[in-house]
Specification:
The complex is a heterodimer of chains A (about 300) and B (about 260). With about 300 residues, chain A is an alpha/beta fold. Helices cover about 35% and strands about 30% of the residues of chain A. Chain A has a six-stranded mixed sheet with strand order 6-7-8-3-9-10, sandwiched between helices. Chain B contains ten helices and no strands. The radius of gyration of chain B is 19 Å and the shape is globular. The chains are: A alpha/beta (about 300), B mainly alpha (about 260). The site of adenosine-5'-triphosphate has 12 residues of chain A, from strand 2 and helix 1.
Chain lengths: ~300, ~260
């Protein structure tokens, strides 16, 4: 059996009285494209920072490619590339210099320059390679930040909201590059608040809420398990009967969207509407998306 | 075998980055302290030359120069490591270093070596410029070099401690204003402590800066207020204490890794 890319055992983190991580267990295999989702403050960045060695776990262990992030931190960090959530940069240097420094800290020398140039080109930074970091636009700084995490060509890549504040063009450019790396065998762990992105990219996702993992499965299973379909009904007259309110996901004027966990709920919904004397103008059944799963698991209170 | 291999490249890279950081803004980090020292030299020597005689055969201007060199060297070694660390912390880009496999010892060595280099470059520049104004013989070059090195190492280490401890620029400035500057001025840059009242002489003996400056001056003139060996012992002890303290801070991840 090959080593897991990431293995997290009962990791807990306290910040004073705050219990930010309440015992996380998670294994990500090599070559996976894994999504870590959850609302603001769920503990995603805290978990990532523990993997990166920026924070120390209060309890539990984490290992990257079999190397413990505390006791064998050098080996663990060598194989890990992290894109931090905060948009940070060093104002003294240009993009290419920073990338070469970053690779240098990991022991890489001139032989790595071709890779640095490939990263620069793949992320659309060629025009800005010799521009001082300070003079880059926000989106360009984000690209440079991603590039820095890749500078030493790590087998395990963790991206903490890499697409925040990034335009459509870069998202596509970036994802095609990250996908290519994934195909070449790099393990990718991604956090994002754009759920379509996670749905499209990640083969498996974990959903976190208040320091706990509340769902962990393949994207396909989650989609079928938690919210099979959406039923939209447009009413010509009448109201949505109260028996259907628990299923109501959202309402736009007279269009009510109901989340169905099973397809046969369609009959139930329609008969309830008939009983209530509501007149239906239009009906649509849609596939659920990750957002539905997300809302049903971590949405609300 | 090459000196730079996979194991040592990380620490060399960090050292190089820290050196470039001040070298790129050399006007501010090297030229400006040299100009400041020259202004001190011109003003003090103009006012005091001929009125103050500390050693019989040494003109006051010459007496002043080693003190000014040492003062600038110390201040700049401190400024280099402390401001680089505080700035990276405030900007957040310190994570780029914290994410790497560099050990705390390598981290320390790279920041320290850059601080020493900045201190020595500033000190040497002042010496070379001062040669235009006054004849500056060197009696014991080895003492000059020893104290220049120890002084910049001591303050470079102190700068690392201050940089790790400070979360903001004003906290670091407090170190500068309430520790470095008073200790420098009370150390005998501008006078011999033998010209002080006995109480102040006694107090000065608790000031590590006094030993750095006196030992350094001994290297130039072959005479000082105390034996250079005593100064060497005191400064080395202080350096060792600060190195231990800063390594402890770095090892524990104090204020760097939560
Ligand atoms: N250094 C810290 N000190 C104290 N509390 C912290 C610290 N870092 C995070 N927290 C708290 O821990 C909890 C989890 O934060 P974390 O940043 O991991 O959330 P997140 O899931 O990444 O959220 P987001 O989607 O907003 O990035 C939050 O309540 C946060 O306020
Ligand atoms: Mg976060």
């Amino acid at each position: 059996m090959t080593l897991p890319a990431i293995k997290i055992d009962n990791v807990q983190k306290h910040f004073g009285a705050l219990h930010a991580l309440k015992g996380i267990d998670l294994t990500v295999q090599q070559g996976e494209f894994f999504g870590l989702l959850g609302p603001n403050g769920a503990g995603k960045s805290t978990l990532i920072n523990i993997l990166a060695g920026l924070l120390r776990p209060t309890n539990g262990n984490a290992a990257i490619m079999g190397h413990d992030v505390v006791s064998d931190y050098q080996a663990a960090r060598l194989v890990l590339g992290v894109v931090p959530q905060e948009l940070v940069f060093d104002p003294f240097f240009n993009v290419r210099e920073m990338l070469r420094f970053q690779a240098g800290y990991f022991g890489r020398g001139k032989e790595n320059d071709a890779w640095v140039d490939e990263v620069i080109e793949s992320l659309g930074l060629s025009d800005k390679a010799y521009t001082n970091m300070r003079k880059l636009s926000g989106g360009m700084k984000r690209r440079a930040l991603i590039a820095q995490a890749l500078a030493h060509k790590p087998p395990v890549i963790v991206l903490d909201e890499p697409t925040a504040g990034v335009d459509v063009e870069l998202r596509q450019l970036m994802w095609s590059f990250i996908r290519k790396l994934n195909k070449q065998g790099h393990t990718i762990i991604l956090t994002t608040h754009y759920l379509e992105e996670a749905e499209e990219l990640c083969s498996r996702v974990a959903m976190m809420k208040q320091g706990e993992i509340v769902a962990l499965d393949t994207t396909a299973n989650l989609l079928s398990k938690f919210a099979a379909k959406n039923l939209s009904v447009q009413l010509k007259s009448g109201h949505l009967p109260s028996s259907l309110l628990p299923m109501l996901k959202h309402q736009e004027a007279t269009v009510f969207t109901l989340a169905l966990t099973e397809l046969n709920q369609v009959e139930f919904a329609l008969s309830e509407l008939r009983k209530a004397g509501a007149e239906v103008e239009d009906i649509q059944i849609n596939e659920a998306d990750l957002e539905d799963v997300f809302l049903s698991l971590v949405g609300g209170a | 075998m090459s000196l730079i291999n996979e194991q040592t490249r990380g620490v060399f890279t960090l050292f190089k980055k820290e050196v470039l950081r001040f070298w790129r803004v050399a006007f501010q980090t090297i030229a400006s302290p040299v100009i400041t020292a020259l202004l001190y030299l011109l003003i003090f020597s103009h006012v005091l030359e001929g009125r103050v005689q500390i050693y019989d055969d040494v003109p006051y201007t010459a007496f002043l120069i080693p003190g000014l060199i040492m003062m600038s060297l110390l201040q700049n070694a401190f400024a280099n490591s402390s401001s680089s660390l505080v700035q990276s912390k405030v900007m957040g880009n310190i994570v780029f270093i914290l994410l790497t496999p560099l050990t705390y010892l390598q981290f320390f060595l790279a920041f320290l070596a850059a601080a020493i280099l900045r201190g020595l470059v500033v000190g040497l520049s002042i010496y070379l410029v001062a040669l235009f104004f006054v004849d500056m013989p060197v009696v014991h070059l080895s003492w000059v070099m020893t104290f220049a090195f120890l002084g910049s190492a001591l303050l470079g280490t102190f700068g690392i401690i201050a940089g790790i401890w400070s979360d903001r620029f004003d906290q670091m400035a407090a170190f500068q204003n309430f520790v470095i500057v008073p200790l420098t001025f009370l150390s005998g840059v501008f006078y011999s402590i033998h010209s002080l009242p006995p109480v102040w002489q006694a107090i000065s003996k608790f000031n590590p800066f006094f030993y750095m400056i006196d030992g350094f001056r001994y290297g130039f003139f072959g005479k000082g207020d105390i034996s250079p060996w005593v100064s060497f012992a005191v400064v080395s002890t202080f350096l060792a204490l600060l190195v231990v303290l800063s390594l402890k801070m770095l090892k524990s991840g104090y204020k760097l890794r939560g």
